[in-house]
Design brief:
520 residues; mainly alpha; 20 helices
């Protein structure tokens, strides 16, 4: 295992030094770790490698039969399903809340999450160790590369700690066979301390630019958004508000509706890269790194007779009818061809696809669907709308319902409203709510705005409240304590459902590890 990790580090780092674009990686494995960190080009190539490794890929890539790994968390709610769960049983066990009896069956998925995140952490640790030792003419660039390495170390640890809880904490790279490899689990609170420290440093150092204006490199606002998310997850609301407002007051802004059809904000977000709303995204193109089968997952299997670009169409992540009742009838996001769709006519051959179950229109790249079969639309990790929602909730929880907090939430609500209700009207109404009811409005809006970016389970775990969506009244949502509640498939949540199991394979390799409670 020691040799495996060392070779993974070398493979991850060994990129040609002239390679500055994240989509132009050219792996090479004949360099030693120490000799690799000798100049600026090598340091930059190493940091570039982190943009396409580890936890970001858990959200951004999709297979033909299994959605992005991060999407499986949402399936725990029972509000989204994978139509191929008979084969991809990790999604079946998630929906039925039976992972505890099936840890061995789902261990390949757990291995992938664990190994790839720790590979990225190892590369980042090497950057944190060696970049300060490299002589560079441009000290600002040196500090920026170091801050980017810290960002990605934090990002990967954040994903891991949310998934598994307490973790082995590595802050130095494993580069020699004599380095300590097998560590005990460190309490989640200590993991969060490192994450916070790394991100605070990144916020201070990284450039105050929009992501698109910074060559798709991490910015101050990306780091602040992640840090706000980290604080929100821990219930540190004042700190979450401070960092969310860094983003809210940045040059980023909401995408506006040009119309309520093809040029709505949601369609613009679906088909357009580099919008001001996008705080952080994964870059894709059709030659080096395309978005996989994401477009094909926006339909069900009957679409194979309508389109020739993908050999497999499968609804591996789709909403239930009950979940769609989270939207009221005046909400633009529930209208056809906004977030979801039920029919599509192929303009090339005239054939029509229809479905009783909603597909996810937000995932459709029409160039890929109709001609190339290779998606090029970037994947949005964080958007300005989420910064507004985080700021609104955090302010209300830390200092009470203010005009500022109400205004942030109102912006998200007003954009989705088709009845002409203004931001000012929403703000006035929201200011009259109690803090408890205002926060619930924030939770509801997160359910409506962010479900397709896999934020739902994080919100449920941090609040310890489960959203019960009415089956009869559109837009009605109640919240009940999570433990003991039934998910939308009728399974009852247990304390052990809050974390995934550590892979039995990893426990076998490292006898210092202990399994999460409740798992066999």
């Amino acid at each position: 295992m020691k040799t495996k990790l060392f070779l993974l580090l070398l493979a991850g780092m060994a990129l040609t030094t002239s390679c500055n674009k994240f989509l132009e990686e050219n792996p090479r494995s004949n360099l030693s770790l120490i000799s690799y960190y000798e100049n600026e080009g090598q340091a930059e190539a190493t940091v570039n490698a982190l943009y396409r490794r580890g936890s970001p890929l858990r959200y951004s890539t999709t297979g033909s039969y299994l959605g992005s790994t991060a999407s499986i968390n949402t399936i725990l709610t029972g509000y989204f399903t994978n139509s191929y769960e008979g084969q991809e049983r990790v999604t079946l066990f998630a929906r039925e809340l039976t992972r505890q009896q099936n840890a061995n069956v789902i261990s390949p998925t757990m291995n992938t999450i664990w190994d790839e995140a720790y590979e990225a952490i190892n590369i980042a640790n090497a950057g944190v160790k060696y970049i300060p030792q490299i002589s560079m003419v441009n000290e600002t660039k040196k500090n920026t590369l170091l801050a980017e390495a810290k960002f990605f170390r934090a990002y990967n640890y954040f994903y891991l700690v949310k998934t598994f809880g307490a973790l082995p904490l590595y802050t130095l790279p494993n580069e020699k066979l004599t380095d300590p490899l097998y560590l005990e689990r460190t309490d989640a609170a200590k993991i969060y301390e490192l994450i916070e420290a790394d991100l605070k440093s990144a916020v201070e150092i990284l450039p105050a630019k929009k992501f698109a204006d910074n060559g798709h490199r991490i910015t101050k606002y990306v780091a602040a958004m992640l840090l706000a998310d980290v604080y929100l997850q821990q219930g540190k609301f004042a700190d979450a508000a401070t960092n969310a407002k860094i983003v809210v007051n940045s040059p980023h802004k909401m995408t506006e509706n040009i119309d309520f059809k093809e040029n709505s904000a949601y369609n613009l977000l679906r088909k357009t890269d580099n919008l001001d709303e996008v705080i952080y995204a994964q870059e894709f193109d059709d030659l080096v790194a395309n978005s996989g089968a994401r477009t094909a997952t926006a339909f069900n299997s009957t679409a194979v007779s309508v389109f020739s670009t993908y050999s497999i169409f499968e609804r591996v992540f789709g909403p239930t009818k009950q979940f769609l009742n989270v939207y009221d009838k005046e909400d633009l996001r529930i209208q056809p061809n906004q977030f979801y769709h039920w029919s599509y006519t192929n303009p090339i051959n005239g054939k029509k696809w229809t479905s009783q179950d909603a597909g996810i229109w937000y995932y459709v790249d029409e160039q890929a669907l109709l001609t190339t079969g290779r998606g090029t639309k970037d994947w949005n990790f964080y958007r300005y709308a989420e910064a507004l929602l985080t700021a609104a909730e955090s302010i209300a929880k830390s200092t009470g319902v203010s005009a500022e907090a109400a205004g942030y939430l109102a912006q998200v609500k007003a954009r989705a409203n088709t009845a002409g209700k203004t931001v000012a009207q929403f703000t006035s109404e929201l200011q009259g709510l109690s803090a408890e009811n205002f926060v619930k409005e924030c939770w509801k809006e997160r359910l409506r705005e962010l479900p397709l970016e896999y934020k739902m389970w994080d919100d449920i775990v941090r609040t310890r409240m489960f959203p019960v969506i009415s089956t009869t009244e559109a837009g009605k949502v109640d919240f009940v304590p999570l433990i003991g509640a039934k998910n939308a498939s009728g399974a009852v949540f247990k304390e052990s459902d809050l974390l995934w199991p550590i892979s039995p394979d990893e426990i076998q390799r490292n006898n210092k590890l202990t399994q999460n409670p409740g798992y066999q």
